[in-house]
Amino acid sequence: MNNLKSYLDEWVDKINTPSFIEKDPVQFPRRYTSLQDIEIAAILTATIAWGNRRMILNSAEKMFQITGQSPFDFVMSKGYESLDPKANIHRTFFQGDLTYLCKALNHIYTQTNSLEGFFEGDVWRGIELFKDIAYTVNQSKTKHISDAAAGSACKRLHLALRWLVRNDGIVDLGVWKNISPESLFIPLDVHVSRTARTLGLLNRKSNDRISVEILTDKLRDYCPEDPVKYDFALFGIGESNNY
Q: For residues 90-122, b (16+ Cβ closer than 10 Å) or e, as one string?
């Protein structure tokens, strides 16, 4: 256990550096200074954070050209109403999907000045609440917001939460102050799960909510106050094939 912890900590120190930002989607919420712009940019960027990393960055550039200088102003002025629903942004994510998310965010920000309150206490409950509001406002479902109640790993929203909550002052922004990093869960995708299984941190085959909770609990053994920092290590080890 101590050897693996040391190995993971070494990789966290290697990957969690300012130079990582320029090649990671976290660069997009970091472009903004107002809380609402950062929150919206984090949600929108994380939503398209799957597939080839270079493609993700290119697609995010395209998306934030659409939203303009302030994503919050774009949402609140309902700029999304003029989008072409069939125009592609990223793989299976189209401008119609961007409209879907922005419409939900508009509804939320008419009632509160931050998304943080949704996720205080229980981030899984917050993910469900965000999904339910989006479903209600749009009167339809979307494949781009995962269903925690159905057992989804909810990788993309957990990634956005990592950006918004972790506060070590390096890569993640840490703009939310009422949620502790210890309450976060690992953003589990195919690559992170493969690395975790190879290292013996995860035995289950499914990349689902149960696996997220098992892996995060294991990582809490190594760092109870900030288990999700090991997302950097699992990413770096996997990318380098350095098992």
A: beebbbebbbbbbbbbbebbeeeebbbebbeee
Sequence-separated (6 or more) residues with CB below 8 Å from residue 59: 48, 89, 90, 91, 93
Taking 70 as the threshold, does the pLDDT of residue 243 lie above it?
A: no
Location of structure tokens 């509160």: 112
Place of tokens 């790993």: 153
What's the chain look like in SS3? CHHHHHHHHHHHHHHCCHHHHHHCHHHCHHHCCCHHHHHHHHHHHHHCCCCCHHHHHHHHHHHHHHHCCCHHHHHHCCHHHHCCCCCEEECCEEHHHHHHHHHHHHHHHCCCCCCHHHHCCCHHHHHHHHHHHHHHHHCCCCCCCCCHHHCECCHHHHHHHHHHHCCCCCCCCCCCCCCCHHHCCCCCCHHHHHHHHHCCCCCCCCCEHHHHHHHHHHHHHHCCCCHHHHHHHHHHHHHHCCC
Question: For residue 2, is pLDDT > 90?
Answer: no
pLDDT in tens, 133-180: 999 999 999 999 999 999 999 999 999 999 999 999 999 999 999 999
